[in-house]
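for the writeup, i need someone to sanity check this before i put it in the appendix. the sequnce is what the collaborator sent (i think, or maybe the updated version? ugh). structure was predicted straight from it, no edits. if anything looks off just tell me and ill rerun, i have time this weekend
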Amino acid sequence: MVPTLTLLLAMVLCPCIARAQGAKPTATQDIQLSAFTGVSGVYTGLSGGRNISLTVGADLALTPWNGVLPSLELRGTYPIDRGNIVSQKDIFGGLRLDFYLSHRIHPYGDFLFGRGEMNYASGGYNFNDFTYLVSTSYVYSPGAGFDYDLSNHLVIKLDGQIQRWGSVPTASGSLYSTAGTIGLVYRFGGYGIP
């Protein structure tokens, strides 16, 4: 999986790096930092479990290329309401691609990878004559969403992720959970890329 992600990242970034020197407009930003926070509804994928969670993260946007803005993203989710079956917390990093269809709405897709932890409620989760209290796993998390610009710095975010968890107490040893987030983004330095 790591070689595939490395190749994908190289294909996206190399055309931007490999272009010849030329004059740049003075208002163009090569990189841009933004931070976000939001509330997430998480469907854990285990016996109908649900959580309400806090999600925080940051994006480092690189140079745009043909209407696509590649970014490196880091995000984490922590349960506020742990639910009655299991609560999930995680931290991810990965690649995000924004697509410019208008100046105010920016749809995007991302692929994140990281580590997650499940904490089982009510004294643990019974599976195959064993009680699980906590399990940790690598997690793959593709997703999509859109940002809506309120101003040059402030943005509303709507985001959805599908997460594949491994090493969990199920017959297959894995499960899929989903997370939907609504939040606010703050762009440092404003938004100089059309």
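The chain has one domain: 29-187. The domain at 29-187 is CATH 2.40.160.20 (Porin).
thx in advance!!
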